[in-house]
Amino acid sequence: MEVIRGKRTRQMQFAELRELVSAYSQVIADIGTGDGRFVYELARAHPDWLCIGIDAARENLEAYSARICRKPSKGGLPNVLYVIAAADSLPPELRGLAAQVHIHFPWGSLLEALLLADQGMLADIAGMSCPAGSLEMLINTGIFRDPIPIRVQDLPELTLDYVDNTLAPAYAEAGLTIMETRVLSQEEMKQARTTWGKRLAHGKNPGTFYIKAQVGGRRTHNSHGSSAAA
Question: Is the pTM here over 0.85, yes or no?
């Protein structure tokens, strides 16, 4: 498994990862982490958690992965790990580790897989979770407003009905039970820990869906809940 700190990368072996995991109360993973801000902020707020950010674009990770190497007084954090990997080829070393898996504002092949309920990728995402772990996603629906980007023109528009009638049964086949779906308010968006989320919060209509699923679990008839997003 390839990990990055600043501009330096190296291979982390399974035994080393497991030793690192054993020092913390739980593992949190963020797929498609972008610049890594979310896991950095989460790790700073929860020093007893190991927070892992995963992204294929190593240049995006350089700034925050360099920051974690500093002295604690200057922002260094020992409980953050940045992994270079694509969402469709998640490292097997991470299987079964995460109490929470997060996906924020996916794009490209990851967005396509989530909206089309690609069984292979969903099973891989579920496989990262420990038993009864959760998957929490923030998906921006503003992309479906004109002008619609070419990459998403053929994708189904994300609506509450689409989640209930199409995604929920398809996700269940991959071992993910959708427990809650709702549209975030602008005030909730302002609390987002991601760089992109904070940018969207200042728009007129962010249109962000919060979807929470559980590995296994049992879905209630109405999944439109009211709990706060991560």
Answer: yes
List the domain range (segments joined by +) for residue 36. 2-215
Question: Would residue 220 count as lying in a domain?
Answer: no
From the list 191, 182, 213, 34, the residue with the least C-alpha distance to 110 is 34
Q: Report the domain count for the chain.
A: 1
Look at residues 134, 4, 135 and name the one whose alpha carbon lies nearest to residue 65: 4
Extended beta strands in 15-174, E state? 26-31, 49-55, 80-84, 98-104, 129-140
Q: How many residues does the chain have?
A: 230
The model's pLDDT over 109-157, given as tens digits with 9 standing for 90+, comes to 899 999 999 999 999 999 999 988 999 999 987 766 656 666 676 888 8
Query: Are the beta carbons of 111 and 202 closer than 8 angstroms?
Result: no
Q: Nearest-5° angle of CA 60, CA 69, CA 194?
A: 40
